[in-house]
Amino acid sequence: MSTLTDPPKEQFQLSMLVNDTRYRSLTFQAIAALVLALAIWYLGNNLIQNLRAAGLNISYNFLGDPSGYDINQRLVEYDSQSSHARAALVGVLNTLLVSVLACITATIFGVIAGVLRLSNNWLVSKLMAVYVEIFRNIPVLIWIIIIFTIMTAVMPGPREFRGDNATSSMVLDLFAFTNRGVYIPMPWFETGLFASATMNWLLVIATLVGSFFVMRKVENNATKTQEETGIRPNTKWIALGVWLVPLVLLLFLMGLSWEVPALKGFNFSGGIKIGGPLIALWFALSIYTGAFIAENVRAGIQAINKGQTEAAAALGLRPGRIMNLVVLPQALRVIIPPLISNFLNITKNSSLAIAVGYADITATLGGITLNQTGRAIECVLLLMLFYLTASLTISMVMNVYNASVKLKER
Amino acid sequence: MSDTHAQTVAFVRETEIPPAPPPGRETGVYKWMRENLFSSIPNSVLTIVALALIYSLLSGTLPWLLNGVWNTSSLQECREVLDGQVGACFSVLTERWNQLLYGFKYPIDPAYESPFMQYWRPNLALLLLLIALAPVLFFDLPRKLLAFTAVYPFIAFWLIWGGSILVPIVALLGFVAAGVVFQKYGKGSFAVGFFGGILAAIVVWNVGGFLIPEGASENAMLAAVPSRDLGGFMLNMMLGVTCVSLSVPLGIALALGRQSTMPLIKWICVVFIEFVRGVPLITLLFVASVMLSYFFPPDATVDLFLRVVIMITLFSSAYIAEVIRGGLAALPNGQYEAADSLGLDYPQAMRLIILPQALKISIPGIVNVAVGLFKDTTLVSVISMFDLVGMIRGPILASTEWNGVYWELLGFAAFLFFVVCYGISQYSQWLERRLATDHR
Question: Which family, according to the similarity comment (chain A) (predicted)?
Fold first, then answer.
């Protein structure tokens, strides 16, 4: 009988760190860590020396100092006595405002252009191809400048609206397109239930949210009935009632009225003013990114097997229902991932606001604040931190959505 | 029986009836229009709307384009020539073309009469660029042309920046030395060859730096040009070409690093890629213009062009790394296993088996990144570099002669970018068809 003995224990030798694949990765990582540490030490050392030579230090105290500059386009209270942090907040809100607006309109443009590009109509599909090619191949900065120039150099000045022989007039007597911005009517409440306008608007939003939940309940019930009996009850009129009745009642109760912009002296007053830079940025980002989204939408629809459409037609579905029930739900899976990255691009490209003087975070924190305080490192770091957070948040939210529409396989 | 029967038939056709022409509404233009433009009522409405749109676009721009004035020296003169009519003042292009293309400070060569020849240095560099790019873009050309591509960066550097010819020669010699060392020792062990090559290059550059005499740039054959004098569309082209070509190798390294099984290396690459992709290019350009100089040694002066090249290269390498990672992920696992079973080590497997296939898949994506990067080079105008957009918004629109000429200049810029970007994307589509070796 022979007994099993352990194989002789291998002696660890230094050469195994290079020659043995089991240990070699450790060597490489140790070298990488060393190089990384050296690089960080070198850069940090340079930084400290340079800062000492320039008599600077890293400190974020400047954020509390009064900023001393004005911002035209703002969503929250702000004046030149407010702090730099407040200016940065105005910038953050402006960035978010233009990004959200541009994401919505870019999606609309993109879906329309993408669907029309697949149209049977030769002229329309060629026109959309030209749109996509022209807008994709010219830098977005040039588009922003072109539209900004239209807004400032081509639009009439307010004084051209004045007098008996005015050369310009308001569209429908409601909208004024001037070189200082676009004026649109502003809704307000004469007999609001709350003293502050914000609370009244929140009430309106709450009503809409309530209607949404009631409507979802109704739809669920309809689906249940359909599953039991095979016949779906008509919910069109209920939907109309649920959405409209509470809203109209509430608005009537609070006395909704519109403040129409009017020419007073040398400028328009009243209504909501949308500044030229915001419109330039918003519109340019929308049409530029819309061209990219159009290509994604086209690719997504074309990726759906023709058999799917034919099978749906064989089941007796009408073309509209084929699109809604069969093609689009499948195409969405292909369209959404690139759509996410296009939304990210819009958010990042909104930093080009600085080229037309729209006060987004890059223009306030990375522009005027940086120049006034000379705190380059702090400002740029904060700026990067904001964009990084925004990008990661958007991609996280959209990934959750993406996972919810993903193909459910066994 | 059959005979008699045959006689009762008066007429038997022996040839086929020639096909009748289709009805008028089923042929030619009429049919095409009915099928493609007016097949249904919504379609007809769309067609009419599209026609109205095209008409309004053309009627707005065509008179302006065709009635253009090409030979005046200021906007005022141009308006006098137009005399109230609609028309473009293209004379801003004929007068300022050199500023738009080369920037307003690039030195001209007074030895030549024609204004085109006065800029022979950048022009020659562009021509040579096309020759150098040809073997990279078209695989059918003889591979020996790649030798020229390898020398091109040094020739172009000398042509555009001028100064002593010794500088690019020493730089080239460093690379040659690195190549020789790698050839000699790289066969045995990749790492030895690689690091030995780097060491050899550094030695050659340092020795060469001592050999170049102090005032060599002053009275050189080509006048030295400081980087801040570069501008116009040339600057966009230079940034685009340099940064794309530098970021491809860096992107490959990052993509391989992200795939690595070594956790430390993997996480360094992941953090770098995600960080760069999460911030806009403009913040990185801010870093280049206001922050990067803090990280260099106190006595080093790294000029803005180089700092911008560094930041844009880092930016695009992260995007290229993601494209290449897609290519690597698309390869079936069998390829990796086959390479392993042949006994190839990691560098060999990557160089001979994995990367050639992965890069082939990722070429269209890389070209897309390149087009996007080229468009993004216009952002340098924000940190006050005078590229094409910077020239238009800065010196030209601010000059008294041409204050107010927007559309001609912006249209020209848009046209230049469109031609280049559309050309590249058409090339990419052609390449994609060329490379589709499956499903023949």
Answer: Belongs to the binding-protein-dependent transport system permease family. HisMQ subfamily.
